[in-house]
From TrEMBL:
SUPFAM superfamilies: Chelatase. This is CbiX/SirB N-terminal domain-containing protein. InterPro entries: CbiX-like (IPR002762), Sirohydro_Cobaltochel/CbiX (IPR050963). Keywords: Lyase, Metal-binding. PANTHER family: FERROCHELATASE CHE1, SIROHYDROCHLORIN FERROCHELATASE, CHLOROPLASTIC.
Amino acid sequence: MPSTTRALVLFAHGARAASWAAPFERLREQTAARLPDVRVRLTFLELMEPRLPQAVAALVEEGVNDITVVPVFLGQGGHLLRDLPLLADGIRAAHPGLRLQVAGAIGEDPGVQAAMSDYCVRALG
Protein backbone atom coordinates (compact mmCIF):
# COMPACT_ATOMS: atom_id res chain seq x y z
CA MET A 1 0.00 0.00 0.00
CA PRO A 2 1.51 3.39 -0.99
CA SER A 3 2.28 5.78 1.83
CA THR A 4 0.42 9.04 2.14
CA THR A 5 2.43 12.20 1.80
CA ARG A 6 0.47 15.18 3.05
CA ALA A 7 0.54 18.90 2.50
CA LEU A 8 -1.34 21.84 3.94
CA VAL A 9 -1.77 24.77 1.58
CA LEU A 10 -2.71 28.17 2.93
CA PHE A 11 -4.66 30.02 0.24
CA ALA A 12 -4.66 33.83 0.47
CA HIS A 13 -5.94 36.54 -1.84
CA GLY A 14 -2.70 38.33 -2.73
CA ALA A 15 -1.92 42.03 -3.07
CA ARG A 16 0.31 44.39 -5.00
CA ALA A 17 2.41 45.31 -1.93
CA ALA A 18 4.88 42.57 -1.03
CA SER A 19 4.65 43.55 2.65
CA TRP A 20 0.99 42.46 2.67
CA ALA A 21 2.10 38.82 2.66
CA ALA A 22 4.23 39.08 5.83
CA PRO A 23 1.56 37.94 8.33
CA PHE A 24 0.62 35.06 6.03
CA GLU A 25 4.28 34.01 5.82
CA ARG A 26 4.45 34.07 9.63
CA LEU A 27 1.31 31.92 9.77
CA ARG A 28 2.88 29.48 7.32
CA GLU A 29 6.10 29.33 9.35
CA GLN A 30 4.27 28.82 12.67
CA THR A 31 2.06 26.13 11.14
CA ALA A 32 4.99 24.34 9.51
CA ALA A 33 6.84 24.31 12.85
CA ARG A 34 3.88 22.47 14.39
CA LEU A 35 3.61 19.96 11.52
CA PRO A 36 7.13 18.67 10.84
CA ASP A 37 5.88 15.73 8.74
CA VAL A 38 3.60 17.84 6.54
CA ARG A 39 4.64 20.20 3.76
CA VAL A 40 3.09 23.61 4.43
CA ARG A 41 2.85 26.09 1.57
CA LEU A 42 1.41 29.56 1.08
CA THR A 43 -0.35 30.29 -2.21
CA PHE A 44 -2.32 33.16 -3.67
CA LEU A 45 -5.39 33.70 -5.80
CA GLU A 46 -3.97 36.69 -7.65
CA LEU A 47 -1.32 39.40 -7.74
CA MET A 48 1.33 37.24 -6.00
CA GLU A 49 3.09 33.95 -6.57
CA PRO A 50 2.86 31.05 -6.27
CA ARG A 51 -0.67 30.49 -7.47
CA LEU A 52 -2.60 27.51 -6.16
CA PRO A 53 -2.53 25.27 -9.28
CA GLN A 54 1.23 25.71 -9.77
CA ALA A 55 1.99 25.07 -6.09
CA VAL A 56 -0.16 21.92 -6.08
CA ALA A 57 1.54 20.67 -9.26
CA ALA A 58 4.94 21.14 -7.59
CA LEU A 59 3.76 19.29 -4.48
CA VAL A 60 2.44 16.40 -6.59
CA GLU A 61 5.84 16.24 -8.33
CA GLU A 62 7.41 15.93 -4.85
CA GLY A 63 5.20 12.90 -4.21
CA VAL A 64 2.41 14.54 -2.23
CA ASN A 65 -0.91 12.73 -2.69
CA ASP A 66 -3.10 14.31 0.02
CA ILE A 67 -3.57 18.09 0.15
CA THR A 68 -5.78 20.19 2.37
CA VAL A 69 -6.34 23.80 1.27
CA VAL A 70 -7.15 26.30 4.01
CA PRO A 71 -8.51 29.62 2.72
CA VAL A 72 -7.04 32.35 4.91
CA PHE A 73 -9.99 34.62 4.19
CA LEU A 74 -12.31 36.11 6.81
CA GLY A 75 -15.49 35.01 5.06
CA GLN A 76 -17.05 33.19 2.13
CA GLY A 77 -17.15 35.89 -0.54
CA GLY A 78 -17.15 35.44 -4.29
CA HIS A 79 -13.56 34.22 -4.42
CA LEU A 80 -14.35 31.29 -2.13
CA LEU A 81 -17.81 30.63 -3.52
CA ARG A 82 -16.83 30.76 -7.21
CA ASP A 83 -13.10 31.02 -7.87
CA LEU A 84 -11.78 28.44 -5.41
CA PRO A 85 -14.22 25.66 -6.42
CA LEU A 86 -13.24 26.19 -10.07
CA LEU A 87 -9.56 26.03 -9.17
CA ALA A 88 -10.14 22.88 -7.11
CA ASP A 89 -12.05 21.23 -9.96
CA GLY A 90 -9.21 22.03 -12.36
CA ILE A 91 -6.63 20.65 -9.92
CA ARG A 92 -8.60 17.44 -9.43
CA ALA A 93 -8.90 17.01 -13.19
CA ALA A 94 -5.16 17.60 -13.67
CA HIS A 95 -4.17 15.24 -10.83
CA PRO A 96 -6.71 12.39 -10.68
CA GLY A 97 -4.82 10.42 -7.99
CA LEU A 98 -4.68 13.38 -5.63
CA ARG A 99 -6.88 13.65 -2.56
CA LEU A 100 -7.77 17.35 -2.37
CA GLN A 101 -9.84 18.78 0.47
CA VAL A 102 -10.86 22.41 0.86
CA ALA A 103 -11.58 23.72 4.35
CA GLY A 104 -13.91 26.61 5.13
CA ALA A 105 -12.72 30.18 5.42
CA ILE A 106 -10.42 30.55 8.41
CA GLY A 107 -12.35 33.60 9.65
CA GLU A 108 -15.56 31.60 9.99
CA ASP A 109 -14.08 29.16 12.51
CA PRO A 110 -15.49 29.80 16.02
CA GLY A 111 -12.04 29.55 17.61
CA VAL A 112 -10.58 32.06 15.19
CA GLN A 113 -13.53 34.38 15.79
CA ALA A 114 -13.01 34.10 19.55
CA ALA A 115 -9.32 34.98 19.14
CA MET A 116 -10.24 38.00 16.99
CA SER A 117 -12.83 39.09 19.56
CA ASP A 118 -10.20 38.81 22.30
CA TYR A 119 -7.90 41.02 20.26
CA CYS A 120 -10.65 43.60 19.73
CA VAL A 121 -11.39 43.71 23.46
CA ARG A 122 -7.67 44.11 24.29
CA ALA A 123 -7.41 46.92 21.72
CA LEU A 124 -9.98 48.87 23.70
CA GLY A 125 -7.49 49.01 26.54
